[in-house]
Amino acid sequence: MIDLGLPRIPQRRRIFSSVFIDTFGWGLFAPLAFLYFSFGTGLSFSAIGSAVSAGTLAALPTALLAGWLVDRFSPKSVLVASNLVTAVGYALYPFASEWTLIAVATFLVMAGDRLYWASWPVIVLDLASGRKLDATYAAVGTIKNFTVATGALVSSGLTIAFGRGAADLVLALNVITSLVAAVLLAGVRVSSDRPAPRTGDPEEKPGWRTAVRDHAFTGFCFSFMLLTFAWALPATILPAYAVKIMDLPGWAPALFLGINSVATMLAQMPVTAKVSRVPRPRLIVRAALIFVVVFTGLYLVTKLPATLAIALLVPVMLIFTLGEMISLPAANALVASSAPVAIRGRYMSLFQLSWAVSGLFIPLLAGFVLDHGALWVCTAFGGIALLAAIGIQATAYRVAPAGTQEQPDAPAEDRGSDGPAAHENGRNESCAPVPTKDAI
User: Fold this and answer.
1) What is the greatest pairwise CA distance in the chain?
2) What mean pLDDT comes out for the span 6-24?
3) How far apart are CA 424 and CA 129, in angstroms?
4) Number of C-beta neighbours around residue 355 at 10 A
């Protein structure tokens, strides 16, 4: 296997191949996902949108169920199930000719997505430790950006060649890639030994109550949920902001989104390696402050002529991308490595709700402030990022022991090619919140 700078974790061929194949299929179909229902249903876009929203909302509680399933069975079982559920959901698309069937198909696809994000970070923790954990999350993000973009380009080519008929072909390929990814993941060998953590009450079994009563962790999740509002900038906020508020050309939003995607693909892994000695909480706080600066800059460029504004928005977008790159691997690694062993799935599912909850409110907030102008947009989203920085500073350093010296990554040959990596020290052995902590 060509190295490509990928972290040397056990069974990396299967792991990274499954990510590549799965997200390539998703990238193929993503540009056509919403339009697909309009091709053969005769429903209005409003009806289709309400059905998709209903299915997405109904799948939201699946995130909590996914956490319990990860802890009850294993992250690998849930990860394989997520691909199978997603494949079934997409396989229903050709038959979804009514509102109810569209909602059901969307529910299955989104439920599979919730299962995926509750289990994927946990299975990575079974294979990597120390700052190699951050590097592995960074590698997964890089692969996803690359394969989604590649899949979208292939989808465009097929659409040009076959017209609407390409939609069914692309959908079939998406189902097949989900099934192939499931087969690859089913062959991954990870330890199923999950010792129960100690709690203050020896009679108490760790569960949801343990996770919810970890106030440092739940406070961090809430603060990180505020931080995820900033991630709406490239795809949700900037297109309307640039064209409607700044009167920039229609091609400008695609340019900025492309810069964001390409920069992430090229720089995510080097950036993660560069900041590997910086405490994870500090990284996340810095990212939040970077987003505050970005939204401030976004407002200031509205005062400039269009050509100069476009030129200055390029570095603004690169700075924004830097904030993304330093914070996301650090946040995933912080939560995954700090969760008590027996209930990692519950911890990760609560953390993943950060994205799901903000996703419900971002369109509402974005629509409201965009109607009121640049100052409202930048004040609202910049202010939320500042609140996130304050909240993360107050909570993230208590999620895991501050100053805990992470063990250097053991050579692959010392661990064996298929054995799970040793876990980090810290809260893996205890359910009790720790009073101190650190980040990018």
Assistant:
1) 68
2) 79
3) 6
4) 15
Give residue-wise pLDDT tens across range 79-121.
999 999 999 999 999 998 899 999 999 999 999 998 998 888 8
pTM to 2 decimal places: 0.76
CA 125 vs CA 102, 320, 340, 346: distances in Å: 35, 28, 12, 14
Q: Which residues pair with 281 in a beta bridge?
A: 439
* CB proximity list for 183: less than 8 A, separation 6 or greater: none
Q: Which of 66, 59, 42 is nearest to 110 (CA)?
A: 59
Q: Which two tokens stand for residue 160?
A: 């040009």
Between CA 339 and CA 344 the distance in angstroms is: 5
145: Cβ–Cβ under 8 A, 6 or more apart, which residues? Answer: 261, 264, 265, 268
CA–CA dist 93, 214 (Å, integer)? 41
Question: What's the CA gap between 228 and 145, in Å, rounded?
Answer: 18
Q: Which two tokens stand for residue 26?
A: 């998703």
Contacts for 155 with CB less than 8 Å, ≥ 6 apart: 27, 28, 29, 30, 31, 32, 166, 170
